UniProtKB/TrEMBL annotation:
Region ranges (Disordered): 53-73, 173-192
SUPFAM superfamilies reported in the protein's UniProt record: Concanavalin A-like lectins/glucanases, Galactose-binding domain-like
Any one Gene Ontology BP term: carbohydrate metabolic process
Residue ranges annotated for the F5/8 type C domain, each copy included: 29-177
Species the sequence originates in: Aquimarina aggregata
InterPro entries in the record: Alginate_lyase_2, ConA-like_dom_sf, FA58C, Galactose-bd-like_sf
Stored Pfam families: Alginate_lyase2 (PF08787), F5_F8_type_C_2 (PF22633)
Stretches with biased composition (Polar residues): 62-73
Molecular-function GO terms, alphabetical: hydrolase activity, hydrolyzing O-glycosyl compounds
Biased amino acid composition, Gly residues: 177-192
Protein name: F5/8 type C domain-containing protein
Length: 429
């Protein structure tokens, strides 16, 4: 009934103007006319740079294929619900249209929605083609206009196509004025707050990066941490402090693996701390963490006990192992470092979890024994995940964040990065 009324309305206008010549005008042609009119109104919009792209699944046709300028490559994922590809503009931008090219777009209609927002957990729909679909008449880019909004993320949610349940996108372009509401190093999603405020980082320093994902340098202690955010590396997203690191990024002289990682300091934050793990005093780190994305190695470390000496080096690394560039599904929870690689002959799998899943852990060191616990939502121990053999490291400190593993010699690719979130971080001595 809604479509009939729309057709009748346009027909009545045409008759009134004396221009009516036939009864064959349909909804598709009227919407094409509206699109042309909207395109004229948005003529000042320019193509925006896309910082990175990710998806919650693929069949080997990667999300990055939609940004290579080649209509013969694609991202594909099978399923009529829940399959999506997300574009990160790096900071909030004013956007007004999205251009999409569909695989076999001249043979079938693709069903989809375009959703946008400044947090991936709070997106809203600006284009709904779940029922109507794409034109079904071209493999070239099709333009989808909407009222200008400020957003950092653009997500295409797929619902299959008119022939089967596959979602297959060959190219994406995003357009707008580009002037955002919170971009740059002072931006973020925390309403003026910073990761420092969220996590209480007085007794931590941030070892990380300055510059851009494709051109950066390693910084041993990021200056002005109390006010620091950066929409590439370290920022707030819906009350999570996000740590992102790309392949090929610069790193310290002692490691070929890039990181964006917190290093524990003394309580006043003035000096490096070193504590003894061989005494009866229990040293503890509790942190709520989630891993959202893996780099091409499939490995990310998100918590450590490190020793000052080369003999013990990283006493323990709490990390995960999955597939290259994995963004969803199950991964292995792994214990690496001295306590397994030296004392047990290799890294050890101690469980599994899903990417994007919130986890609450406690890492302890006492009487030369390292333990990892699972905690409930109140912070109480409910399970001992790992207990080490004795390791007598005496000059230790905790680390937490995003430390890519097995990434030495990798070159920068916009789609090759790891992403870790931390919402709570505490140490006790």
């Amino acid at each position: 009934m809604k479509n009939y009324r729309k057709t009748l309305s346009y027909s009545f206008i045409a008759i009134t103007l004396g221009l009516f010549t036939s009864c064959t005008t349909d909804i598709e042609s009227l919407e094409q006319l509206e699109s042309i009119q909207n395109s004229d109104a948005k003529a000042s919009a320019s193509k925006l740079n896309i910082s990175s792209v990710s998806a919650n699944g693929d069949d080997g046709n990667r999300p990055s294929n939609t940004l290579d300028g080649n209509l013969n490559t694609r991202w594909s994922s099978n399923g009529r619900t829940g399959k999506y590809i997300t574009y990160d503009l790096g900071s909030s931008k004013k956007i007004s249209s999205v251009k999409l090219a569909w695989f076999k777009g001249d043979q079938r209609k693709a069903y989809f929605k375009i959703r946008v927002g400044n947090s991936t957990s709070n997106l809203f729909t600006v284009v709904d083609r779940k029922s109507q679909g794409s034109s079904g008449s071209t493999r070239q880019l099709e333009t989808y206009n909407f009222n200008e909004v400020s957003a950092r993320y653009v997500r295409i949610s797929g619902f299959g196509n008119s022939s089967n349940s596959w979602n297959s996108l060959t190219e994406t372009e995003i357009y707008g004025s580009g002037d955002g509401d919170g971009g740059g190093d002072g931006g973020g999603d925390g309403g003026g707050n910073t990761p420092y405020d969220l996590l209480g980082l007085k007794n931590w320093k941030l070892n990380g990066l300055s510059g851009t994902p494709s051109n950066n340098s390693y910084v041993d202690a990021i200056p002005n941490l109390s006010s620091y955010t950066n929409n590439n590396w370290f920022f707030l997203d819906n009350n999570w402090a996000i740590f992102q690191v790309w392949a090929g990024s610069d790193t310290s002289s002692g490691s070929g693996n890039p990181r964006m990682e917190l290093r524990e300091l003394t309580a006043n934050g003035n000096n490096n701390i070193f504590w003894d793990g061989t005494t009866s005093k229990e040293h503890r780190m509790k942190w709520k963490v989630r891993v959202d994305r893996l780099p091409s190695s499939g490995k990310v470390c998100f918590g450590q006990i490190h020793d000052k000496t080369d003999f013990f080096d990283d006493v323990i690394r709490v990390q995960c192992q999955g597939n290259a560039n994995q963004t969803s599904g199950s991964v292995k929870l792994r214990i690496n470092g001295y306590v397994t690689e030296e004392l047990e002959g290799g890294g050890k799998t101690v469980g599994s979890f899903n990417l994007g899943e919130e986890m609450y852990f406690e890492l302890t060191y006492k009487n030369s024994v390292v333990k990892l616990y699972e905690l409930n939502s109140s912070g109480n121990r409910i399970k001992t995940i790992f207990t080490s053999q004795k390791a007598a490291a005496k000059q230790n400190y905790f680390k937490a964040g995003n430390y890519l593993q097995s990434m030495k010699g990798k070159s920068y690719k916009s789609s090759d990065f790891g992403r870790v979130g931390i919402s709570k971080l505490e140490v006790f001595h």
